[in-house]
User: Which sequence fits this backbone?
């Protein structure tokens, strides 16, 4: 039996399109304070390890973890950087606890996207320096090419992608922390200005600022705390060969990560055993692609199911009830963590007007975005 590890505390800021009056350190401090209060823990005496999920490329400074300890309560304590998404950070935290090194770990992730004055240059710097970057195109073109390949091979349609964008932006209206909620319908999405063919402006998630902290604990420690624990039943992560070399029609990283997480969780039929999901929707087509890679819908079925309402808040398999990245905002390495916190909130029964009736087992899935082929999946449950 795998070691049982639980999420025992979560905290986050409101996610905003811009936050000119706040530094990233102040955002982190707010999220950390909320998370430790939620868990009923003192970071100076109760937490054995601190992880920050960050990429120096997006921070504008090297050795970024040197600037993290003070605001999360980790000064002169074990602090570790995960150069990946928050769900990858959860995996590292899980392993630290399962190994017995520590029994409580805090995972931090954040976005100060509004500080990035040249996002196009940042994306370009991440492209393959030999084969891709010299072409000189915007990195989002890779996503558009992938969208074209995926829609052509799957049979899903541009109109069904518009249903995703409209659903998620409308879902965000019930989320007071969302930055980009909007009362739009699929026709509004289709009529919005073109971004990169076949994607329009409303098919692409906009960046947002914010921070979050998730606290994990061993089974023994979790059962002593005030909060009902949310159990990590399975977790997986994978990296494909990259968008420039991989088959753009499928999200192999998501499929591989899901297989790893399902195997650990004992999930045999995800469509029947998963009550709801928060999946990456950096671009509208990505939600459909990821749902199929996760085995929640068969090939070419996620689009029709979405258009028919199956993934709506009152559907058979609610997806991105939080609003997803399209509604909440694209949060760099915090994007997966935002989805985890929504799942935790739903499993606790604390989601307010967006609370789902059936919420016992769920998954959160992340993708690190263009130009990566890296993703992660975590299965969480109340039991």
Assistant:
């Amino acid at each position: 039996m795998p070691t049982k590890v639980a999420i025992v505390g979560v905290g986050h800021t409101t996610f905003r399109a811009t936050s000119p009056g706040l530094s990233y350190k102040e955002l982190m401090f707010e999220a950390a304070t909320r998370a430790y209060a939620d868990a009923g823990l003192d970071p100076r005496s109760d937490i054995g390890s601190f992880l920050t999920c960050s990429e120096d490329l997006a921070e504008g400074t090297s050795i970024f973890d040197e600037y993290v300890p003070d605001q999360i309560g980790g000064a002169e304590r074990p602090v570790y950087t995960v150069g990946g998404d928050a769900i990858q950070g959860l995996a590292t935290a899980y392993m630290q606890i399962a190994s017995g090194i520590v029994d409580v770990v805090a995972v931090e992730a954040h976005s100060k996207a509004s500080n990035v004055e040249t996002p196009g240059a940042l994306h370009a710097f991440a492209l393959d320096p030999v084969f891709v970057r010299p072409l000189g195109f915007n990195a989002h073109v890779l996503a558009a090419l992938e969208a074209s390949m995926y829609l052509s091979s799957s049979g899903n349609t541009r109109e069904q992608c518009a249903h995703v964008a409209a659903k998620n932006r409308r879902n965000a209206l019930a989320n007071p922390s969302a930055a980009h909620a909007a009362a739009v319908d699929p026709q509004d999405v289709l009529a919005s200005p073109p971004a990169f063919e076949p994607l329009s402006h409303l098919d692409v998630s906009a960046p947002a600022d914010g921070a979050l902290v998730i606290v994990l604990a061993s089974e023994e420690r979790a059962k002593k705390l005030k909060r009902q624990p949310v159990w990590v039943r399975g977790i997986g992560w994978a990296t494909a060969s990259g968008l420039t070399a991989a088959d753009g029609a499928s999200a192999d990283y998501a499929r591989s990560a899901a297989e790893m997480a399902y195997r650990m969780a004992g999930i045999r039929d995800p469509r029947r055993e998963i009550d709801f999901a928060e999946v990456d929707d950096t671009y509208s087509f990505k939600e459909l692609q990821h749902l199929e890679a996760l085995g929640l819908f068969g090939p070419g079925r996620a689009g029709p199911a979405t258009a028919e309402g199956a993934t709506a808040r009152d559907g058979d398999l609610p997806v991105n009830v939080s609003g997803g990245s399209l509604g909440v905002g694209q949060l760099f390495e915090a994007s997966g963590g935002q989805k985890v916190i929504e799942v935790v909130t739903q499993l606790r029964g604390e989601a307010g007007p967006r609370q789902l009736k059936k919420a016992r087992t769920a998954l959160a899935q992340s993708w690190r975005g263009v130009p990566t082929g890296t993703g992660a999946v975590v299965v969480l449950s109340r039991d």
About this structure: DSSP finds 16 helices and eleven strands in the chain. The first strand starts at residue 5 and ends at 12. The mean pLDDT is 95. The radius of gyration is 19 Å.
